[in-house]
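Before we proceed, please read the two lines closing this message. Tell me what the token row says about the fold.
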Amino acid sequence: MTIPAFGLGTFRLKDEVVIASVKNALELGYRTIDTAQIYDNEAAVGQAIAESGVPRDALFITTKIWIENLSKEKLVPSLIESLKKMRTDYVDLTLIHWPSPDDAVEVEEFMSALLAAKKQGLTREIGISNFTIPLMEKAIASVGAENIATNQIELSPYLQNRQVVEWAQQHGIHITSYMTLAYGKALKDETILRIAAKHSATAAQVILAWAMGEGYAVIPSSTKPENLASNLLAQDLQLDQEDKKAIAALDCNDRLVSPEGLAPKWD
């Protein structure tokens, strides 16, 4: 299975805001939507999809299992609840959102439960998010690399996460980048702006094109129709080797997402 290279993120968007964002995106041609149990917007996303008129089989929907639902008793029932909220019989991809803090639930337990959900047809594919190399090793030992469609990690020009990326790719695990624009910080970067001017593109288009050019999937979010439309055009932007080298040099291990009590020991 191929993870779509470009999709819509819905982190921090709720109620009417997320409904408008998803509807606008679908109207513009987006077909991949990323949500999560903890975003508290699955029902709103489901409503937007239902009202859009886009057929379910044309969409690729991802959700993520929250840490409170990782036990073998809770994981599948929580996913069934997510499906009800989204008004669908299945999702295309289900991720473990964060590894269980302090190994309260063992990797083998939740990965096996997630694989069971796949076998039941509740999700077409399964994967992980915010997993380090040691955690990926455990996940592979539990269900096999062939059953891990992606590792969704924070990845931006300022946090290029090369060690994790290279290890994942060597083991056949695709990378999905979140926080690709570094909370908007990278949009003001002089190097990015120079490359954008050279290509008559926006800073966001340059960053998203860079990430996709590296082989990662991206899921930028926006509440503005003009930005949703503009971001889509990143798929047509080709950066040259000089551009890529300049962006590679921006890496400074600047991690923005590392919640206390939740984040693993990063590589």
